[in-house]
Amino acid sequence: MTATYELHYFKFHGKGLIPRMVLALGGFTWSIKLVKFVLAEFGAIYRYLGRKVGIMGQTEHEMALVEQFCSSWEELYEVLFPLVGGWKHLLSPEQYEKSLRQELYEVIKPIVMKHEEALAKNKTGFYVGDKMTVADFHAAVSMPLLNHGGDLFTKEEMPNLFSLHDKVMAIEVLKSEYDRYLLN
Fold it and tell me: Can the keyword Transferase be found in this entry's annotation (predicted)?
């Protein structure tokens, strides 16, 4: 029996992209509100749906690693979103650009480099095991979003993350959802 989901969401699309990608991959019928119960917060939603689709890891160890990588990407959003949403209106353009670049290069980039190292260590092209997980969605969505000006991350510097982005976007239902609400 195919489940139908209805997502309640705001007028902008932000973090809701990952739950929509999980729904699309699972082939679920859905529209923008959950039918049997209401579940809030994008992380709780995509984790719940990810378990239903089977993309949260296959073992307890893999599930813990998926949670770790997802949490790390979410923490990066917590650094970036207030910066672009709030500081931009409080600082002069020069101060804003200086603050943004400082956060990007001193906080965000070192963490993203750890993600590159984790992908290189696994050698499958995915964060855990040999199958795509929701952690891989995070990387695919986050890399363009965090690559301010297109010069923070390069293919040469982070080949595994760029390759992962390409793998995720090669899946038509995921690319379609990504393109539907372009973030960059």
Answer: yes
